[in-house]
Amino acid sequence: MRRVVLLAFVAMTAVQGFAQRDKVILRDGSVKEEVKMDVMSNDSTVFIHEGQRIALPNYEIYMVKQDKRGNVFFTEDGEQFTGEGDGKVPGSATAIYLTKGQEVIAYNVSITPDDVTYQLGKKKSSPKVTQSKDEIFMICYQDGSRMLITEFASLEEHRRMAAEEARLAALRARYPLDGTILTASGKRLSVTVISEDDTDYMFKHRDNPNGPVFHIKKENVKDINLM
Q: What domains are defined for the chain?
């Protein structure tokens, strides 16, 4: 009888120790469950998973979910920051992970083509939140299944395109400006430059302000002098 009790105690201790292990969520949506953290540095994170020692650059990691010490999130550049969220997600709750780096414990989650709506508590009177899908990285349900809402690669491409459009808009905001263009062939033009992009100048001839808009490739411009 004593042996059975001892074995039961050893088994319970092993389960408790195992349950206290941590979790690593990667930016591609994959999850390394039940890991044992080793070292987190400014550049990389090292942990033990299924008997293997794994080292990953921080920019590949979304978060490290630590059972006892809380959550550590990572930016797209690999910078660490502590964020909101519990060490353990209640069994009846759904975990929602935001693209900005935050864990939300949610209930009664519903999804539309554009938004995700959830409550912050079990009670019907609990606050309800609606967020755009592009604010949500992933939803982890009680049964262990995951739904990837916004891929970071797509989000980063969207940000890159937005930044590029802002850069071009700032470039175009300089105009119109009067000046002269000296072409590669030696022709001098008196112009009003209407706009420009990375490859072309768009202009009108200054002596015909109501005339058509012309394009000239920047590679065909030897010199431009604008006032």
A: 1-88 (2.30.30.100), 89-156 (2.30.30), 173-226 (2.30.30.100)
